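Lecture notes, unit on protein representations.

Consider one protein chain, 276 amino acids long.
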Amino acid sequence: MKQNAAIFTYGSGDWTFRFGGAQVVASTLVAAFTVMNFFGVRRVARVQNALTGAKITMLILFIGLALLVGEGDWKHFSVPTTRWTTNSLHAQFAISLFWIYLAYSGWNAATYIADELKQPSKTLPLALACGTTLVAALFIALNVVFIYAVPLDTIKQQAMKGDVAVGSLAASHLFGPWVAGGFSALMALGLMSTVNAMVTIGPRVYYAMAKNGAFFAGAAKVNPRWHTPVNAILWQELCAVLMTFFFFPLLVKNTGFLPYSSLFLAVPARLPLQSA
């Protein structure tokens, strides 16, 4: 996503609000999945299975073709690179982990819809184990392919220009510029499964919190016919649309830091108190 892609900007630095074609497409996609989620989990699950299957197939094909016929170089793993930030090594390592947090986020999301699953005691452990293993394998394999295709210095230079489409850059080096556009389109389609998953599971958290008195009571309202938390789904859509106006790297840092910080704080709160 390039910084100059927006037709309207307001503010400066990371806190710049942007509006353009990317925001329109993202908001429309969120709205479409939001409407779909009004009508129950079963219908959404079919769509999610199809989208996820297509994305996994695409990623496996890309990884396989990249390593078998792609024009990469294993020497890229031994090429030295220079640091571009003034942050200390430990601080930059922590900041870089935010992007990895986001890549792995969702591994536990199946638990959010446990109330709407049949035999959750059987399906949830299987979903968590298989999902986490598959995500980890694909994530590591993709990073291997990216460095195999492009030296780290080249990736760094692109990122500093505001272009974080590493997949498209890698595809261009591996198969030629004419493939990069098609790969970017496929990656965009693949992201639809992530959008649908987040639209589905997020409102279930607000719904559960509202039932326990820890969130606005309106989020606990359930549609009598479709048995879905309609208010929670709609409120999340509005928040998601507003977030599309922010600079993408800033969103990644915040969505990586805030949820996992909350998880770290929640674990001690759930541990039983030990008597002195």
